[in-house]
């Protein structure tokens, strides 16, 4: 790593989950009826006809959250016509179809007279297959719910434009038929005694449909950034908060729902492994299950690769340079991100740090238009991973190469620190950084070590290639590198 001469940059890390955009704190919930009463007093000039029409649509659709959506929509101010909101007729509250906690029904609970010849292992196998089936049913319910009570109301109420909603929700709507297809296949496998014989061939035949996840997951990085940006708008924040307070949401926010497909994708190998564990020898599924597991792992790897490339491109586009020398070739040559998140400097300054495939980039929040894309101002000179040095600092005051004095007060002790430094093309740099806890510190250290090793190995290969090839290309083989950390990006 390099550091501006004799000006060591220590950074205490304020690391959010390293693999994804920083999540915002959930908003505190308020009582619906109290909130709406206050809102009516403060703002009687709502568009009554428009609001009432949306509410009627919600009730006609037999939505599980009709009353809560009514409260939400009535509480949002529309300035088209200044009329007092007419009293809404009292309606009997419907029982929610989406409890905060899902029932934990087992397969054995659905069987009236269980066959006595079923072994304990076979019962466990049926339980896992039933869990696989129920998981599909719950995912379909949740995705349909997202469309019905988030997308459609926000579109009708013009809380977000159709284009913005399209960016945030991506191709979510196209995933519902895929999972409905699998659910129908799985339910068709159940015999008269509610047992399933072979599940491997069905999964092997269906898994190729999951190629649709590449488009959806690649869109998620930009979708999350846009959603966080739009939450700064009062109407958007208010609508999402009221939805989260409602019983249908199970206290999950919109992004939790939008992230469900990705979470489901990485669960398939675990379920298949458990089914295989309880599948006896000579069973018809014995050969089919390994094939299905191999197929889904290859699909997940492909999704990881494409998602990593999309994430890298998204953040590369968001970098702002104060001088041309910061535009080092390693940034454009990088194909993925190992990790990124907030860390603190020696002065207690928050930095957003990106560890790309070939370079470590420290940035600060850039002044940006409220409606514009997310931007990060590059801070100091980017540090090529091939020239990085890494030092794990013990808890306490860092050594003479940097100090965190002034960043803390009272008896606060400096913990979870590490130092990166480099000497290379120009000035040497040294930055001491602090993570928000020991776990995140170890994540950073692990990723940094991996990046350093891979970059140096790649650099050696390129030197050999340059000696053998009359027309060498500096980064010809970079895209072929595969790294395990991309899989972890999907597991968080």
From TrEMBL:
Region listing for Disordered, in residue ranges: 1-21, 38-106
Compositionally biased region (Acidic residues): 1-13
Segments of skewed composition (Basic and acidic residues): 42-56, 68-82
Entry-linked CDD domains: PH_RhoGEF3_XPLN, RhoGEF
Domain (PH) ranges: 330-453
Record-level GO BP terms: intracellular signal transduction; positive regulation of Rho protein signal transduction
Main location: cytoplasm
Subcellular location: Cytoplasm
Entry function: Acts as a guanine nucleotide exchange factor (GEF) for RhoA and RhoB GTPases.
Protein name: Rho guanine nucleotide exchange factor 3
Organism: Danionella cerebrum
């Amino acid at each position: 790593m390099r550091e501006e001469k004799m000006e060591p940059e220590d950074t205490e890390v304020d690391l959010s989950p390293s693999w994804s955009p920083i999540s915002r704190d959930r908003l505190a919930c308020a009582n619906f009826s109290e909130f709406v009463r206050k809102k009516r007093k403060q703002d009687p000039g709502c568009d009554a006809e428009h609001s009432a029409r949306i509410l009627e649509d919600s009730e006609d659709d037999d939505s599980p959250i009709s009353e809560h959506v009514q409260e939400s929509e009535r509480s949002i101010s529309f300035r088209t016509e200044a009329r007092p909101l007419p009293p809404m007729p009292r309606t009997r509250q419907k029982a929610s179809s989406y409890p905060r906690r899902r029932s934990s029904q087992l397969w054995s609970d659905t069987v009236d007279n269980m066959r006595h010849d079923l072994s304990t292992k076979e019962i466990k196998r049926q339980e896992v297959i039933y869990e696989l089936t129920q998981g599909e049913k719950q995912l379909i319910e949740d995705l349909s719910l997202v469309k019905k009570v988030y997308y459609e109301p926000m579109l009708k109420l013009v809380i977000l434009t159709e284009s913005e909603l399209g960016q945030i929700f991506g191709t979510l709507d196209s995933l519902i038929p895929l999972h409905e297809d699998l659910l129908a296949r799985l339910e068709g496998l159940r015999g008269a005694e509610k047992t399933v014989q072979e599940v491997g061939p069905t999964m092997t035949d269906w898994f190729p449909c999951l190629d649709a996840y590449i488009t959806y997951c690649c869109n998620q990085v930009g979708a999350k950034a846009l959603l966080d940006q739009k939450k700064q708008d009062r109407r958007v924040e208010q609508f999402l908060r009221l939805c989260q307070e409602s019983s249908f949401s199970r206290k999950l926010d919109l992004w939790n729902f939008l992230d469900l497909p990705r979470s489901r994708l990485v669960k398939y190998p675990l379920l298949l492994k458990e089914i295989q564990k309880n599948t006896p020898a000579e069973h018809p599924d014995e050969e089919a299950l390994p094939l299905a597991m191999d197929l889904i792992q290859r699909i997940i790897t492909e999704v990881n690769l494409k998602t990593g490339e999309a994430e890298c491109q998204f953040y590369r586009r968001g970098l702002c340079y104060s001088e041309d020398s910061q535009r080092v070739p390693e940034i454009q040559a990088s194909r993925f991100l190992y990790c990124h998140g907030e860390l603190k400097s020696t002065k207690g300054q928050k930095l957003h740090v990106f560890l790309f495939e070939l370079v470590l980039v420290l940035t600060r929040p850039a002044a940006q238009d409220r409606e514009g894309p997310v931007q990060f101002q590059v801070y100091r000179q980017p540090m090529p991973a091939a020239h990085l040095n890494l030092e794990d600092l013990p808890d306490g005051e860092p050594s003479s190469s940097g100090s965190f004095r002034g960043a803390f007060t009272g008896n606060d002790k400096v913990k979870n620190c590490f130092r990166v430094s480099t000497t290379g093309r120009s000035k040497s740099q040294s930055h001491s950084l602090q993570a928000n806890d020991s776990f995140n510190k170890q994540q950073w250290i692990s990723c940094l070590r991996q990046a350093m090793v891979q970059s140096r190995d790649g650099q050696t290969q390129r030197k050999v290639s340059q000696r053998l090839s009359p027309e060498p290309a500096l980064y010809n083989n970079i895209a072929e590198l595969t790294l395990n950390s991309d899989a972890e990006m999907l597991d968080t």
